[in-house]
Amino acid sequence: MTNIGETIHQIRLSKGLTQQEVYSGIISRSFASRFESSANDIGASKLFAILDNLAISADELRFIHQNYQPSAYDQALWTIRHAYETLNFPALATWIREHRHSPHAYEQLIASYASILMLSYDHRSIGITTTTQPAFDHLRQAKTWTLQELKLVPVLIPIIAIHRRLGRANTTDNPYGRQLCQLSNGLGRSLSRQQRLTRFLWITISN
């Protein structure tokens, strides 16, 4: 993989822009030359200013820098959703088994998300288990949801639905019932205004 400076250099040339047009007021001409040749690096604030002059987003830069490939997170999420949408449950189960104990937190999170997808397909209720809890906890504990969290929002729908049913039923005989109610209540209390609006929209659309 090339250095970020080299990628910026390639983008600048492809757009027909000069160093003056891209770097003026941000870094010196000599520093810009060293940056584009990978001899120097720059901080995030200066990089964002350069991206503004190039008229591209940070996500687009990352996509180009990775040889026009999505991030590892997005690749894993696409794999899971594709397997689910094509009803390839053996592949989905294999992915979960191979990644639920991954050293990468994002793979553990997506494995949990995939587990909920599988359960929600043919189960009327979903309990909080060691495989489903990571995704639920991640969404509940995040103070502010970014685009990455919003991609996982559908995970809340089956959990909230079962919580509503449990709230109308006797949960004393359900080993996960009391815990689920407590966690779901905690979720409701901890949601920011943005999260509450998003949850409302998803539930409305799903109904």
Structural summary, described in words:
With 207 residues, this protein is mostly helical. The protein folds into 2 domains: 4-65, 434 Repressor (Amino-terminal Domain) (Orthogonal Bundle), CATH 1.10.260.40; 72-206, no CATH class. The chain has helices at 4-14, 19-23, 29-36, 44-54, 58-65, 72-85, 89-99, 105-122, 133-141, 147-150, 156-168, 177-190, 193-206. The longest helix is centred in the middle third of the chain and has 18 residues, at 105-122.
Detail the topology: elements first, then pairings.
Layout: H1 4-14, H2 19-23, H3 29-36, H4 44-54, H5 58-65, H6 72-85, H7 89-99, H8 105-122, H9 133-141, H10 147-150, H11 156-168, H12 177-190, H13 193-206
Helix pairs in contact: 6-8, 7-8, 8-9, 11-12
- Rg result: 22 Å
- Which structural class should the secondary elements be placed in? mainly alpha
Largest sheet: none
Number of strands: 0
Q: Encode the helix/strand succession as letters.
A: HHHHHHHHHHHHH
What is the helix fraction of residues, given as a range? Answer: 55-70%
Low-confidence segments, given as residue ranges, are: 165-191, 193-207
Q: What's the helix count?
A: 13
Shape, please? elongated
Provide the β-strand percentage band: under 5%
> What is the average per-residue confidence, as pLDDT, rounded to a whole number?
77
Kindly report how far apart the N and C termini lie: 45 Å
Q: In total, how many domains does the architecture comprise? A: 2
